[in-house]
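User: Round two. Same drill as before: sequence, then structure, for each protein.

Assistant: Same drill it is. First protein:
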Amino acid sequence: MELTWYGHATWGVEVGDTSLLIDPFFDNPKTDTDPEELNPDYVLVTHGHADHIADSDRFRGAHFVSTPEIISYLTDEYGVEDGTGMNLGGTFEAGDAFVTMVRADHSNGIDTDYGATGGMPAGFVISDTKPTQVADEDSTTFYHAGDTSLHSEMKDVIAPYLEPDAAAVPAGDHFTMGPWQAAVAVDWLDVDHAFPMHYDSFPPIEIDTDDFVKEVKATGSDAEVHVLDGDETFPL
């Protein structure tokens, strides 16, 4: 599995021969990538805010996965041609990947005159094996927390049952967790690798990422923190 951070909450995930893109928003200061250069098989959308769906129309030919409300909206307003609506707790087989939709605590209004909500906001756990109650030491699993506050399901459900090896957690504060809550999330998730995201894109969420590194260390977590440059790829 390979992870590429395109800034903000936008990630590329390669699982076998399958490419996934999460929350397409390339108008952020961390990326120089032209979205026209990417050709994902699947696009996963955590919620309907503009800074997570803005470039969806660049990937109309991909298969979109999100809540039914967001799939309907993207079909009507962004010209998305193919999509699957799902909900919290479900797992969707996306080529070589298994995508499980999990809880995120956030708002989910669609920021247009459409006048709708996107259903429940979500995070995604992406694995190269189907999740079961039986631990699989050979599986590789990445958790994209979406826009969220700290919540106990990270510790009670995601960590023990979905067993992520790595997690990308929002750390920009104001609209999501800040560094200290994001660090607690990393500790609860018991991951080997942690990545901050959703920061520095605009003034209210500008942070010093050293604070996140220090906070993770203060929890006693053994996770290795990776503060990626925009467009940087990490092999998991």
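Second protein:
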Amino acid sequence: MTTKPFKIFATSSALSLGTAIARELGQQLGNLHCETFSDGEKFVSFGESIRGRIVFLVAQINMPYENLFELFLAIDAARRASAEQVIAVLPYLPHSRQERKGSMRTAIASRLVADLMQQAGADRVITLDLHTGSIEGFFKIPVDHLFMGQIYIQHLESLALPNLCLCSPDFGGLKRIKLYKQQLNCDMAVIHKERLIPNQVSHMEIIGDVAGKHVVIVDDLIDTAGTICTAADLIMEKGAASVRAYCTHAIFSSNAIQRINDSALEKVYVSDTVNYIKTDGKIEVVSCSPLIAEVIRRMLENGSLMEIANFGV
């Protein structure tokens, strides 16, 4: 391991993931004190010296917004405590679906999140499976954009499903599916859907043959689970032998978990990029901690991240 001095800390919403990452690196999670006062204000302080050290701040900043603000406070505290470098480890970036103006008089929320994070003092960001890669361009600091792809591929291979068919839930996910296909050498399909309003699909159809095949839907996130459950039901109606899903970010808003358990989906594999994962029924977690730990290890040793970025962990 490198001799560069570093410490790993986690905000209050990411203690479990932070501990897992630190354990992968043979380290103890650092002492970061996070408190909420009676009036709702957040307070953050480091319980040990970080002067001259590289600080990795692990944060799961999905809703509520206090998780995001706690991260800003932790970054600012690290800067004021003379950390040499502050690296924000953010497996999930909120507002990643608001990367452009969908209509007049609207904000570009993902750009605002990037601006605030940099203003707080972050030197670098490590994140996973951005909804849109163009979000990297909102940052003036380095962004290490990682993918769960290789970990999911290895997991999928362990299932040894015959007559496998990968399915993208939309045309935007075709690039992701092709990367899986290169290693799995299997059939693929794509779902064409029309949306009238956010989170509500008015029409859906499958392009490709799924009859008699074990179909695996691959996507970056599940929110209300309406689309993926409707897609799974449609796939089974078209004669598929079974349908599963691999999705990185388990947002699970509204009654998403109930929808999944009531759907034709046999299993849904998600990662622990957000701090609310309920592993019951059909949902199983495949942790991102080994991937993040490997990235940190290579970063400290000035090693290449190219293999990881290209599904080559």
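The first helix runs from residue 15 to 24.

User: Perfect.
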